[in-house]
Amino acid sequence: MNCNFRIIRLAIFAAAALGSGVASNGAAASGLPPELQRIAEMDAAGRSASAGMGGQPADAIEFIATDHFRVRFGRCSVDVRLVDAPPPIPPSARPVVATAATPRCQ
């Protein structure tokens, strides 16, 4: 039983090590499934936009294009762009820096 556990741990470690360096684009390099990576990106966009709106909670977060989100606050919206950040140790979600534009209100 103990030997099998070691083999499984070794297989998981090897898969994680190989998977983390296979691709350089965001979702593949993060080690997260695409749906969880998108949630992490939306969280970063929402936090960045909310900080620019004085901490006001967002009503909606809209995916516009890769690394581009629009966060809505009532009659206002803030476009947020994501750029890659240095990778964390240990690897987790794709590290990004979210940059919020100036809010636009109707």
Q: How many individual domains?
A: 1
Cα distance, first to last residue?
65 Å
**Uncertain segments:** 1-28
Q: How are helices and strands ordered from N to C? A: HHHEEEEE
Beta strands, count: 5
Overall pLDDT confidence: 76
Please, could you describe this protein's structure?
With 106 residues, this protein is of the alpha+beta class. It is built from three helices and five strands, in the order αααβββββ. The longest helix has 19 residues. The protein has one domain. Strands 1, 2, 3, 4 and 5 form a five-stranded antiparallel β-sheet that branches.
SSE inventory with pairings:
Layout: H1 2-20, H2 26-30, H3 34-52, E1 60-65, E2 68-73, E3 76-84, E4 96-100, E5 104-105
Antiparallel strand pairs: 1-2, 2-3, 3-4, 3-5
Give a short overview.
By secondary structure, the protein is an alpha+beta fold. It has helices at 2-20, 26-30, 34-52, and strands at 60-65, 68-73, 76-84, 96-100, 104-105. The longest helix is centred in the N-terminal third of the chain and has 19 residues, at 2-20.
What are its keywords?
alpha+beta; five-stranded antiparallel β-sheet; 5 strands; 41% helix; 26% strand; disordered N terminus
